[in-house]
Amino acid sequence: MSTAIAVQDLKIGMFVRLELGWMSHPFPLSNFRIASREQIATIRGLGLKQVIWVPEKSELVDDDGAAGGVADGVVPLAGGAAAADEGAAAAASAAAQAAERRALLQRQRDALQRCEAQYDEASAALHEVNGLLNPDPPAAARQAQALARAMLDKMLGDGELCIRLLSTQGGDRITAHALNVTVVSMLMGRALGLPEAELLDLGTGALLHDIGKLDLPVRVHHPDEAFSAAELKAYRDHVSLGVARGRRMALGPEVLQILAQHHELADGSGFPARLGLDAMSAAARLVALVNRYDNLCNPGPRMTALTPHEAVSVLFAQSRSKFDMPILSGFIRMMGVYPAGSVVQLTDDRYAMVMQVNSARPLKPRVLVHDPKVPRDEALLLDLERQPDLGIRRSLQPGKLPPAAAAYLAPRGRVAYFFDVQPAADDAPAPAATAPPPPLH
User: Which residues constitute the domain of residue 18?
Assistant: First the structure.
């Protein structure tokens, strides 16, 4: 049972929950087990008088460094097993398995709720940015930088970074697109080893890359094959309009380059300046790729969306000359061949939807599996990393799923991503050895 505890009474090993918004503290999660005196000092520096303590999840450390208390996921074994009859032992085993399943399901639900709450907070912060653009451009810039800083702090924390498919449809399209591009771009920048200052500029530029569309009619926000020459020009003008807004916001030159170049392509076929690869900044090359991926998955209303797997295939097979190949290779390594949101058939013929991709193990995502024997709200995500004999056979269009599987998996009409930070499991398999991604130049 949780209880409030004064911050001056905190100890290493306590599992605590901070009653603060996600952007108001530097920790990857709002609930965690305290691992060091530095973390205690950080909590005390937040200005809180008390936090929530969860004793049953705590593992206090005494002065000799020995751990006590109850560790997560440990089920005490009853003594005297040798004296128990076979039926009692089987019943105890079944009860333990049921308890473990309930605990795993609750952790899974908690993780998804936490991720979606963080997404909602980031979405609200981005709405505040857009609301400040006209009355106070410099304040809008500061808010955008604060949001990018908060996201970066979480990404730089300890634990495994996972790209998670949200169950929400992601709010309005402009906000959802900006956050999708920002999350994936910053994770890519982190994977490619960009310095922290460049990651902050990358995140700020990705959040604001489409602000010029706010000066255009909604009907020209997304390209359409039926556009007249005037409509196509108006759509393409969102780049110059965005740069003009960025200057009024007093954005730095690196951020302005992202706004100016996010539709340029490596072969010089992009717009508005038809720049080649060498004339584009590294951050703009990265955002241009992720922007294209999200537009393939979440196109305008009259265009057909590709599945995430199809979008990756298009980028690799048809657009290799249009993007920086080291960045494209790193993108595919991080997102996986089957990014979150892909509908797949497993090697045992079951249907599944990719829900979560661990950037360290992109070929082995976590999937929601269609199982008629298990109610959907009780389905556990299957971690293919822990299933050496099970893999993905092929990707499918959602419309080709059998009706029962389609109703169970409920593929999203729009793909919305966010990131999740999970404590590294001590017993997790080591990631497969891969060559490091080429450096950004």
Answer: 1-62
